[in-house]
Amino acid sequence: MVFIQSYCESNASISHTWVDDGIAPCFFFTLVPTTLLAMCFFLGALHCVFYQKFGTAMEPKFVPRTRLYGFQQLVSVLLLVQFASGAVWRAASGGELPGYVVLYGCFSALSWACAIGLLRVERRRVLVMDRTRGHSAVLLLFWAVAFAAENLAFVSWYSPHWWWSLENNQQQVLFALWLMRYIGTGLLFFIGLKAPGLPRKPYMLLINEDERDVENSGQSLLGSAEENQSTWTGFRQKVRLLIPYIWPQGNLPLQLLVLFCLGLVGVERAINVFVPIYYKNIVNELTDGSSWHTLATTVSVYVLLKFLQGGGAGASGFISNVRTFLWIKVQQYTDRVVQVRLFAHLHSLSLRWHLSRKTGDVLRSIDRGTSSINSLLSYIVFSIFPTIADIVISIIYFITNFNAWFGLIVFVCMALYLSLTIIITEWRTKYRRQMNEQDNKAKSKAVDSLLNFETVKYYNAENYEVGRFEDAILKYQVAEWKTNASLAFLNQTQNIIIGSGLLAGSLLCAYFVTEGKFQVGDYVLFGTYIIQLYTPLNWFGTYYRAIQRSFIDMESMFKIFEEQEEVKDEVNAGNLLYQQGKVEFENVYFSYTSGKEILQDVSFTVLPGQTVALVGPSGSGKSTIIRLLFRFYDVQGGCIRIDGQDISKVKQTSLRSHIGVVPQDTVLFNDTIQNNIRYGRISASDTEVEEAAIAADIHDKILNFPDGYDTQVGERGLKLSGGEKQRVAIARTILKAPQLILLDEATSALDTQTERNIQASLTKVCANRTTVVVAHRLSTIIGSDQILVISNGRIAERGRHEELLLKGGLYADMWMKQQQAHDSDSSSDTESKDRKSEKLQPPSTSSGHHHGH
């Protein structure tokens, strides 16, 4: 039968807070549930009143569906059941039942029932004007206090009134219940920071996004929301992208090197424990008057450990230097793989993406992204994990070898330090992201201005460009100031926490030394260990900021990685089996943007060896046909075939290996003329390059340059004239020797005489090859086997030159206008020559006679 004889156990009182090296159970298990219940009922009541009065019911479509929220509720219910069942078990086990046990069970069960109610209220209602995310301060404070209360049990590690000895069944059951509470409250606190059952954005923002249909417009609201989102958003996807760079797959020596470096990290952790211990032993042996041999041995071991450890934090020790040296190869591997894969990915993206890209932005994103991956790996593996390991080891060491109070001091300081560091750094994220954006804009403006140097000079816009660049720099510096100011605030907060913890621990340790419980060496050990611990911890904020900055810097790079290839090879795509070169367009539809079709129901056939010319006004779709045939884009309707094979079913590399293109606007690499021509076939010899240049009528011109074929063409070939660049492009295509040739106004930049020479060369090159020509000058395509007149995305007329002239349609009209323009130019040239010749003749006698008359 159970009796409640008194509130506390026999020979105990609630006024006694410290009994036998520990907190009195009666005092502890009265204070904790009373505090939790008071907090939950008073603050929870205010919470509910505010949510009922100023809140609104949350629409179900905005409430996240997540299993983690269900797990959160389940843990809360299990804790409630645990408190109630614990009291029932104590009552059923017989013997004396103190009153505080009943109060603890009842109050705790009530407070957790209240917390579950608050959790459900937050999921169903929301403060409309609340601009924050996550749980309310009431719930987070409740879970934090509950978890901290369970950690307070460690203070009573040596007390016989608690369950740590596990001597009987009752203590074992109590320990199991405490373990359940410890894990449960810890899980709720850390899951509560994520708030899985609540929207990740402020509710008003979600409503505005829904009303304005931001998903379709893709405009500012979503962008502004992203400014404030955590850098850890999408952490799993980021880590998944990083894994191939972390572990050098298929490279056994590098894998062994990684494991060896990780082993050195473990050795450093062990040395960090033994350095202050040996320092303590030196002090004790000096005060105790130990023998010289013993003292010398201890000092030698201490110095050896310090040599291995380095300057306090292991920053420049022997082991750290060896690890840094060995890690260079791993770092180079990571850097190489990231850059090569990103470069390959950029080349796999569609022409549409490259036409809309900003080169400055892309280059800055690549530079920052690749460098950030290396720093991220280094900080996580060699800074964050070792620091956390040092903290855990120190807490365990102080609890077991000193006193539970020291472990508590270290734990509270570390928890506060890490929590505030993470919270403030997350708050600073938006400023860092803004700084990156302004940096990108400034560099992008600079790159655009320099690339368009000639245009700037044409319009005397130097001052305008400098002003724009200065404005971008000023905006960048505003964001930079916010970043640095918030950094100073973070550093001061960290210093206050570290100083407070060091003061509390030092005073307590000094007190125990004066009481005779500790030796002087113990104080030295504590001071050495705690400073040794705080030194890397002081860098923890820097490490975390560096990791966060690396994630921010990688965001742009990850966005590039996430860009999907618009034109993809099918899974089972084969090679193009080129036979004769028959090209067929069958009912082709295509548009660059929805709602504006460029090609509509285009059908034509180019027989093997024939030349088909495409003519028509600008913007009619002529060049688009060339791009579709080269498969820069996939058609949206119909199909394109070569020798009966749908080009969307074959590999792009195979298709393009048979096609040679001379584009309308030729851009050359910043290299020699020889290498630019050789780009048509990399394996070509110097003789073959020269033969291609002769065929393109540029060989003699090249020989007149001071450096001949070694002449540098400049960025994008700016040192060459338009005609020279065009002829280099033609030579490059001749060198490739393709079976199918696409000429996109290949002679548009050439003078008449050079154009005739090039036409003769092209005629030889195109002989017995299927050719598609986009032409502006109709005189260049008179001999084509078929001429297609494109107008408004459709084939308006087709036939040979003579047939189209007889029809008297669009082609005949274009021909007449060009002939008239040509005749006008010829007559104006003749008149100008006549005027020049007149100026050169001497005055006639008739003019003198007239003057006299």
Order of neighbouring strands in the sheet with most strands:
8-9-10-5-11-12
- Main pleated-sheet profile: 6 strands, mixed
Count up the helices: 28
Q: CATH homologous superfamily name of the largest domain?
A: ABC transporter type 1, transmembrane domain
Instruction: Give the tally of β-strands.
Output: 12
Q: Oligomerization state of this entry? A: single chain
Say what the CATH topology of the largest domain is. Answer: ABC transporter transmembrane region fold
Give me the CATH architecture of the largest domain, please.
Up-down Bundle
CATH class of the largest domain: Mainly Alpha
Number of domains: 3
Shape: elongated
Structural class: alpha/beta
Mean pLDDT: 78
User: What separation lies between the terminal Cα atoms?
Assistant: 155 Å
GO biological process, one term: otolith formation
Subunit structure: Homodimer.
Subcellular location: Cell membrane; Early endosome membrane; Endoplasmic reticulum membrane; Endosome membrane
Enzyme class: translocase
